[in-house]
Specification:
By secondary structure, the protein is α/β, with parallel strands linked by helices. The chain has 10 helices and 14 strands. It has a 6-stranded parallel β-sheet, sandwiched between helices. A 4-stranded parallel β-sheet has the order 7-6-8-9, sandwiched between helices. Helix 5 packs across helix 6. The two termini are 17 Å apart. The N terminus is likely disordered.
Length: 357
Amino acid sequence: MLRSHRRLLSAGAASLLVLGIAACGGTTKDSADNSGAAAQTGASADPNAKLKEGLKIAFLPKQLNNPYTDVEVGGGKVAAGELKGEYKLVGPNDASASSQVSYINTLIQQQQDVIGIAANDPNAVCPSLNQARQAGIKIVAFDSDASKDCRDVFINQATTQGIGESLVKMASELAGGSGEIAILSATPNATNQNAWIEVMKTELAKPENAKLKLVKTAYGNDDDQKSFQEAQGLLQSYPNLKVIVSPTTVGIAAASRYVSSSNYKGKVAITGLGLPNQMREYVKDGTVKKFALWNPADIGYLAAYAGAALASGQISGQQGEKFKAGKLGEYTVGAAGEIVLGPPTEFTAENIDQFNF
């Protein structure tokens, strides 16, 4: 799903998309219209405009020192190098709602050309992001969307609907079609997590999933120890629990670590969105049967190219505009400025050794 975002992943290539069901501490938000900030700018795009060199491209993830984030922004750094631009990485050590605001303000003062942001809260960052846009800085939300009124485009891992459906499908398969399940999410304000969970609830309300019962949604705040404790609490509070679904790489790894060394191993299944390298040992020891994801590096890579296309005038963020994203091929801007990387992929014991990220 690379060229025209429809190429299948090939094992071991860092540029490949990983399809799956997993989602990480990010945001996926589908939109039915094209009324986003980009569409309101009135900007005209020239698809034949030359990509500018020397662009200052800054990445502001939800938090630093997060394994998923590290891979994601690493892809952005590679792209910035290809674009002959200047890469910068800043960010908080916690994923609280307002923790990114001061970094945005600093990036404005530094006169960045592009800010790529995975928003901890879709609204808390908006005043600062709009100040950046007024200063001529292009805003690319990635992984976890900001409000569409304060960014130019949003790089979505996969469609919200597709991720939510995949999470329920995996949970149902692991539960044998019936029983109690729980969700271990990131933070209560995480845009992508909440959007996926809403789809999950809709799917669980369908007749074919009537025998599955969602007993609780817990929040580990994308912190390893907190997620570990929340997983422990879920299992102690719900003795009949069959599956924990964690749509965050931090949560799924922490829950797997707890179950792998407990009496729940083999009795309670763990699934969600995870990194193959982080999850390999739990798949190998039988704790985890399946989980899903895409290649996070491709999200950062695509975000950098989208930012360069915006800063160069090739696109303005309006629906139908096209641009080329290096080795990933051509992409089209969708409704409300959304650019979808591609569908998610499932990892099992049979294929996990084919991937290295």
